[in-house]
Description:
Residues 1-22 form the signal peptide. The protein is an all-alpha fold. Helices cover 81% and strands 0% of the residues. It has 2 domains: 2-101; 107-209. The radius of gyration is 26 Å and the shape is elongated.
Amino acid sequence: MKKLFVAVVLLAMxxxxxxxxxxxxxxxxxDLEDFRNWMNKRVNQGDSITxxxxxxxxxxxxxRTQRLDRSSGQMNEASKQEYGELKSQYQEWEAENDERxxxxxxxxxxxxxxRRLAGTSNIGxxxxxxxxxxxxxxxxxxxxxxxxWSLRDxxxxxxxxxxxxxxxxxxxxxxxxxxxxxxxALQVEFNTLRKSRDAKDRYNQMREQR
Length: 210
């Protein structure tokens, strides 16, 4: 009877260990799948990721890979290989974006672009009643001037856009609904133009490398 009891206890312990291992593998597989989906989403965004968004993307990568790195020893060979390939793919993509975003914007040049596109370098002082008009002026200038812009020019235009967005958020509660809707439409237009330019430059770069 005692031997039977010991056998039952050992069997229960073995099953518990196997269950815990299976649960760990299942969590790892889910984490790897989440990382794969995140990578696909980010890579498909390509060059449309903005300078302001880039630090967040890097932080997301670090957080996701730290969890997976700690458990990589429990991955099977196929998962280890896939994980390594995903990390290598990201690192190549990160190097390209770091090269692009590595140089900080010049404060003087940024102020010139603020005056050039928004008509003022004091965006932080705009009143709620002025936001709509300045956004309209900004987008009129973007439409008129964007044809010959380089990616660096777009970085400065995006700087002005982000300054306007920050000020809009600060006075949002004082804006009427009509102005909010108009500004939202102009924001969508700017992002569409920016991403279309990035996609065009990326396509031209790929053609030159062939």
